[in-house]
Amino acid sequence: MDAITDFLSAVRVQGACYGRIQVTAPWGLQSETGSHARFGLISYGQAWLTLPGTADPIHLSHGDFFLLAPGGEYILSDDLHTAPRQLSELLKEKRCEPIRFGGGGAPTAIIAGRFSFDETHGRPLTDFLPLLILIRAGQPHLLALQKTLELLASEVDASTPGSQVAVHHLADLLLIQALRAHIADTQAERTGWLHALSDAHIGAALSSMHKRIEHPWTVATLASEAGMSRSAFAQRFKTVMSESPLEYLTRWRIYRGSDLLRESDRKLADVAQAVGYDSDGAFHKAFKRVLGIAPGEYRRSVGATQPL
Fold first, then answer.
1. Is-contact 256 270, C-beta < 8 A?
2. Which runs of consecutive H residues, i.e. helices, occur in the chain?
3. How many angstroms separate the Cα of 187 from the Cα of each of 57, 58, 81, 134, 181?
4. The CATH number of the domain covering residues in 199-301
5. Neighbouring-strand partners of residue 85
6. Which of 4, 58, 277, 284 suits a disulfide with 49, CB 3.0-4.6 Å?
7. pTM score, whole prediction
8. What is the spatial distance between Cα 224 and Cα 205, in angstroms, rounded to a whole number?
9. Which DSSP letter does residue 21 get?
10. What homologous superfamily does CATH list for 3-184?
């Protein structure tokens, strides 16, 4: 399994809320913090995107797309001095209908929405996605994103049989396309998990870990996969990923193990072996340390079948 597929399997998009927003200056929108990834596309007009606690505001214009990792909040406005309204008051939970408001000045149209995730499996996003993925108009991958958003809009608006399933799949696709575009963007920040995948050395080690997660990896064998010395690899991995190679490996073994506990009736010892642990005791200890819950308790909480 490649790293992106592994990542998306762990993320588990559960739903998407979408809305068309048509505003006229002066106008402002403020999102709330929460366990959602938020996205927006400027259909026409312009806006300022402000991320509290970060660098300078970002000017957006027709065709620009952004995606924020869970936990991040933002303010969109026509002007940096315009007081914003709460987006939660405008984007309805059950039905996202076109929203129109503003002061009657210059018009702007926005496609805005959010992904919701499984509470346990949403954590990898906050760990590995950058706070902001910004795709400017004219970038090669934007056209695919726009087409997916159009399909997402039609499914949400139609609300016909099968629409909910279609929305979930389109949300997955939108996330994949955003990740691809961010990885391909040579102007984006060159640190973090997504860009580590394109690093000739660290990316090779990550790929090996994800493809053979059950292998008894050590820092030395991972360094060999990366074509680096042990010390140079460990230092570079820590710099790029902000954690050691074995810390990263442990977390992904536990994420994969939780998938197996949820989706199969394998015995705990078999699950442990499948993700690289020699004993269910070692797996139990690591599982509780990473996810804060014992494997058996986790399996019961998600309603999976407990094998005899």
1. no
2. 3-11, 123-128, 142-158, 163-184, 193-196, 202-211, 219-226, 230-241, 245-263, 268-274, 280-291, 295-301
3. 17, 15, 29, 10, 11
4. 1.10.10.60
5. 29
6. 58
7. 0.74
8. 8
9. E
10. Regulatory protein AraC (2.60.120.280)
